Amino acid sequence: MSVVPDDFLLLILSSPSGAGKTTLTRKLEARFPELLFSVSHTTRKPRANEVDGRDYYFVDRETFVKKAAAGDFLEWAEVHGNLYGTSTNEVARAKAASGCRGMIFDIDYQGARQIRAREPQVVSVFILPPSMEELERRLRGRASETEEVVQRRFRVAEQEIEQYAFFDYLVLNDNLEDAFAHLASVILAERSRRWRIAPLAESLLRDKKARLK
Ligand code: ADP
Ligand code: 5GP
User: Binning pLDDT at 50, 70 and 90, where does residue 3 land?
Assistant: First the structure.
């Protein structure tokens, strides 16, 4: 059973590491403040610019495993040797926040699969880099990771890109502004889905009938 109302947008962004999810998510947050970013839990160590509670909830493995066993996660997965998960509390927090119209999940394809199984109306977008060469350049350019981490992430990129067919939309992140425009269009188009707006159309018809009486 879905835990969110129909007009609440659940937007998943996935990609191979380094394709630009985080960059695009930050831009989406600025453009759509009514969509809350889902802050995941992770056992990964924070990068220099990352803030606990904003980018992630950074926890140790023991804490994470306990939370998973207690059923505190909507989904979780092991990615690049670390554990990552979306806590059910995050969804509760967004639903309770005034003016919130949806959530953005920056999660991998395993998490996307798990959320889709529980929330069928979820909208999923897979972000593609323009080339493998550029992907590698971006991974290295982030300069916050060791060569070993960069290589590990680049090695599994192919396996991640193979998952593209399970996503509703594919967005190419070559030029950042173009990619952002495409993502924003996905959100606006999804908000115009007939089934989301149908209750409004029906209420207009009810209103018209009532006026005839
Ligand atoms: P992800 O979250 O998918 O791992 P990031 O958003 O951290 O990726 O981006 C990886 C690196 O690529 C960052 O240094 C970011 O500034 C850069 N980047 C993102 N999008 C573009 C783009 N369209 N053109 C050039 N560099 C980009
Ligand atoms: P990073 O370490 O670069 O922040 O993230 C590595 C990968 O983990 C990315 O593909 C990111 O989308 C994914 N990820 C981040 N949070 C979650 C989460 O809560 N669940 C899952 N399944 N993946 C996540």
Answer: low
**Domain locations along the chain:** 9-212
Atom of ligand 1 at shortest range from CA of 175: 23
129 C-alpha to center of ligand 1: Å? 9
Could you name the CATH architecture of 9-212?
Answer: 3-Layer(aba) Sandwich (3.40)
The finding on whether 141 has its CB within 6 A of some atom of ligand 1 is: yes
| Residue burial 53-89, b: 16+ Cβ < 10 Å; e: rest | eebbbbbeeeebeebeeeebbbbbbebeeebbbbbee
Smallest CA separation from ligand 2 atom 2, residue: 44
Instruction: Find the ligand nearest to 138 CA.
Output: 1
pLDDT digits (tens, 9 = 90+) for 16-29: 999 999 999 999 99
Instruction: Tell me the per-residue pLDDT of 172-195, one tens digit each, with 9 for 90 and over.
Output: 999 999 999 999 999 999 999 998
